[in-house]
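User: These chains co-purify. Model them together.
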Amino acid sequence: MAALGYGRRPMAAPPNAGRTLDESTSKNLLAEYGVPIAAERVVPDADGAVAAARELGGRVVVKLCGDAIAHKTERGLVRLGLEGDEPVAAAAAELLALARPEDGEVEVLVAEMVSGSRELIAGLHRDPQFGATVMLGVGGILAEAVRDVAFRMVPLDDVDAEEMIDDLATQRLLGEFRGEPAVDRAALVAVVRGLARLAEDRPDISSVDINPLIVVDGAPVAVDALVELSAEETT
Amino acid sequence: MSAHHLRPEHFQALFDPRGVVVAGAATHPGKFGFVSLHNILASGYEGKVAGTNLRGETVLGIETVPSIDDLPDGEYDLVFVCTPASANPDLLRSAAAKGIKAAFITSAGYGEAGPEGEAAQAELIALGAELDLLLAGPNGQGVVSTPSKLCAQIVAPYPPAGGIGIASQSGNFVSSFQNWAVWSGIGVSRAVSAGNAAMVTVADYLDHYADDPETKVGLAYVESIVDGRAFADRARSITERMPLVVVKGGATEGGAAAAASHTGALAADDGVFDGVCRQIGVTRAANVEEAYEAAATFATQPLPTGPRTVVMTTAGGWGVVTADAITSSDLELLELPEDLLAAVDEHLPPRWSRNNPVDLAGGETRDTIPTVLELIASHDEVDAIVYLGLGIQSNQARLMREGHFYPDHGLERIVAYHERQDARFAEAAAEISDRTGKPILTATELSVADPANAGPAAVRESGRLCYGSANRAVTALEHLWRHSRWRQRRGLPV
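Assistant: Joint model of the two components:
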């Protein structure tokens, strides 16, 4: 499944790509721009992970986190739905053991496990023709196969953002769905507009992926995010 | 604007010249210098026409001169250039000296012809700017302007006059659009093949059309967009002033070649261009005929102020398919309000559909169609109508007229009646649409299968497009509604 959905995505960063920010830093930056994120802690080791999991309560996700790690799912660096000290400690230890020398400094990210049946994707792309653009679409691991997305140029206003939502072919996914309420359109507009503001404020950011943007009780929550800095600005 | 010296008078010289000089007029009927002169003379251009030819031969009755230098000053505004590239710099100097303001350059051997051609093109453009000339082309097929009955092009056809302004990166698509105009009768104001678009781009022509009282809608074919953001900014200012229909060839390049992100990979196809069009109010059509029909609809129908559409049909199956098309579009199949149902009941037998589509179920008498059409169009909750079934009786009339029983057995009378009725219905559709300010689109395959049928012929006569199928009508109407909605949401007048 993952291979299908991510088939077009190079496993290694292309030679002219810039540095990526680690997941936690990426999400914290996006949170400053109004993108809702699940509660999380970054810790150095298994003990820290256990403490963080207790603090967050309920089921958690444990991931290996580092600036150079962009493709966690493909490398099996994500452990979902953990509950209790032992499973959390074991997962953290396993993940730290999987770190490669080229990953550089790594830490463990412990996040509240959020769930919803619907996964969206949002992003920022600097188009060679049209400049800064933002994207909203149907997300998850099949995003690139499904290709139900809408782009708009930055700057954009609320009307443009609303129309991006209307553009999606899979409208049924946005209404009431499998016992969950309809997607909060205003919250989606806020995500899109936040990305557009980020594109204007930070010319050094070459791309942003928020995938999945899980719809939790109608509200979008960024569960994974990757911010890429352009090569020119960082070298 | 890509060339800063250009002013409205330059475009006026191109589209409404007081006189035209064909440079390189030729006696051989296969050459551009002959064909263009022929097309100018044959299409009824009323300004002065001159030609240059090194030997000073007479071509199509025009006594040519060896050089533009030999022509009087201040009588010609446009030179149509069919000479080899090497002759053009001197020619442009002579033209400017005579007060000419615009040149359409058909000559090849410029930007499309490698580094040497590119250099020649750059020099030509610099010279044109220095001489205060508008240079259209090079390597273009020509310019058409029906208000001046000008057909300065090396290809056919000369389209009927109308409100569509065409600009294209491909000359052949100018011909395609104009051929559709000949077929449908929904005509053209201006048309230009931008050729290499060295000085004047497709966006420049469209910008000019947006302020042109003769042009109601822009229709463009674009292939390579050099600076997308600049194009988008220009197009946004154009769509505020007139609807703009674009068909684009080729995927946008470079989207994702170097992208590590999903977002970049998803931008690889032309989803970005699609989003840009929606953002700036450009009507993007999937293909040439859809583009033409959208433009023809903008040129001839009022914009709907809402999506609520009613289908009126004389037969069930057509209505069902049309309802399906509406349901899967941005339009809305209106559930008929009680008062409208009651009003229609008065004019139809009880077996009528009592639903949308309004299926008349063969219950029509002499005035049923205009009467019911009027009732539907006048209702406040109705924004647009698709009318199906025009021309069926005239189709039967044709079979009767061509059969050997004609004109006896009462056939002459019934044939005349059917044809008169279909013409009435078409006229009523146009008249009610004009009066209510709501679009009424008439669709029948007879428009294509038998354009001489009294129904489609009368639609054409009324200045409207008779759509070749209900699906084509729904697609065109959806384009109008989307543009109307785009305007309304941005506080622009509809």
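Chain B touches chain A through 32 residues (CB under 8 Å).
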